[in-house]
Amino acid sequence: MAAVNRVFAAQLAGLPVFGPDGESIGKVRDLVAGLRLDAQPPRILGVVVELTTRRRVFVPMLRVTSIEPNAITMATGSINMRHFHQRPNEVLVVGQLLDAHAFLANTDTRVTVIDAAMEPTRTRDWVLAKLAIRERSTRLGLGRRRSSLQVVPWTEVSGLGLTDLSGQPQGAGQLLVLFDTMRAVDVAATLRDLPLKRRHEVADAMDDERLADVIEELPEDDQKELLSYLPEERGADVLEAMNPDDAADLLAELTPADQSRLLELMEPEESAPVRRLLAYSSNTAGGLMTPEPVVLAPDATVAEALARIRNAELPAALASMVFVCRPPTETPTGRYVGCVHFQRLLREPPAELVASAVDTDLPALRPSTPLSEVTRYFAAYNLACGPVVDAEDHLLGAVTVDDVLDHLLPEDWRETGLHDVAGEREGEIHA
C-alpha cells in the first residue's frame, strides 16, 4: 500500500475504487472496524464498497494497495460479491461512529465525534488511531459558543458505547482482547479448552482472517466441528481466507455433499486452487503443496524478488525461495526455469535479473511423489521449500518443511502439543 500516514474516514467516503488495471469497481461507502473491550484503538478490517449495481460488498484492507486523495486501488483478484452484512463485533465508522456523543477521558466534558482517522501500524494493520472531536455547544447569555475542533488519540475519548453495539457476551469479549496479543497456535490451544458455547461465541466475534488462522492450528475434529457450526456462507468465507492447502485438507474430511456445497459458495478464483489440490492424495507432494509460492518471470529484477519475500504476510518457509517461470506466473505456470534461494538474492546487485541467479540443478518434485520420498528430498538438499512440477514442466506449487513435519507427526500431535504450548497461560483465561 502507498506510504500514507493518516487517512480520515470522511475523506474516503465517496471516493472511486479502481482495480489494478485501472478498471472502475465502485465507490467507498464506509470503513469497517473491529470492536475491542479495552481502550486500544480498533483495527480497520476493511472497506464497504458500493458497486455500480448498487450492491454493497466488503473488501478486506489487505486487498487495498494504495490510498490517494482522489481514489483507492485494489490488488488483483476477485471480489466476494455477497452483500455486506455487519457482524456483531464490527462498527461502521461513517455510519455509526461519526456524530456519536462521548466524553473526554477522565472528565465530564461532552464531545461529538466529527471524524475518525486510521493510521498504519508496524504490522501493516490499520487502526482507528485518532478522533476529530468538538465539545458540545454551551450557552453563554443569549448566544452559543462554538468550540474549536480537536484531533485527539482514540484513548482520550470514552463513553462511545461501542461495546454495546457488539452484542457479544462479556466473557467472549474479554477473551478476544487477550487473543489479540497471542499467536494463532496459542489461541487454538485455548479455544479447545473452552466450553462449546463459549467457543462458538468467540468464533462469532472473530473476523474471518483471524478465525481462518486459528482453524488452521486446530485438530481435524475441532476444525470440522467449528466449520459445521458456522453458517455456510461464512464457512465459505473462512475457507477462502485459509491457505489453499489447509482449506483442501479440511474439505477432504467432509462428506462429498458438504464439500461440494462449500466449494460452490466460495468465489471461483478462491475455490479453483483448492479443487486442484483435492485431486491429489494427501500423502503425496501434490496433496502437501501450496499453490501460492513466490513466482517471478525471468525478466524480473533481484530488487523485485526481495520486495516479494519481504512481505510480512508470507510464511518464512515460502520466503526462503523464489521460483522463476515463463508466463503465466500464476500456478499452474508456464515452463518452470528454476529457483533462486533468498541468500543468493542477498548477494546479487538489486538491478540484476533473477534469471542470472537461477539454480537449475535442484531437481523438482512430481505431484505423485510419496511423502517418504518428499521427506528424503528435504533432508538431502537441506531445504525449507521445494518446487512441485508436472510432466510438462509447469510449476504447480511448492511443498514447505512445516507441511512435511505436520504429516510426519502422530495424528494427535495437535492435542498433546498444543496443550503443552498453552500450559503457561493456564490460570490467565477464564471461560
From TrEMBL:
Keywords (alphabetical) are: CBS domain
Hydrolase recorded as keyword: no
Q: PROSITE patterns under this entry? A: CBS (PS51371)
SMART domains named among the record's database cross-references: CBS, MgtE_N
Give every CBS domain span: 289-356, 358-416
Could you name the domain of life of the organism this protein comes from? Bacteria
InterPro entries, per database record: CBS_dom (IPR000644), CBS_dom_sf (IPR046342), Mg_transptr_MgtE_intracell_dom (IPR006668), MgtE_N_sf (IPR038076), MgtE_transporter (IPR006669), PRC-brl_dom (IPR027275), PRC_barrel-like_sf (IPR011033), SH3_actinomycetes (IPR058838)
The family database entries (Pfam families) matched by this protein are listed as: CBS (PF00571), MgtE_N (PF03448), PRC (PF05239), SH3_actinomycetes (PF26205)
Does Glycoprotein show up as a keyword for this record? Answer: no
Q: Name the Gene3D superfamilies on file.
A: CBS-domain (3.10.580.10), MgtE N-terminal domain-like (1.25.60.10)
Question: What is the recorded name of this protein?
Answer: CBS domain-containing protein
Species of the source = Amycolatopsis minnesotensis
Q: What is the lineage of its organism?
A: Bacteria, Bacillati, Actinomycetota, Actinomycetes, Pseudonocardiales
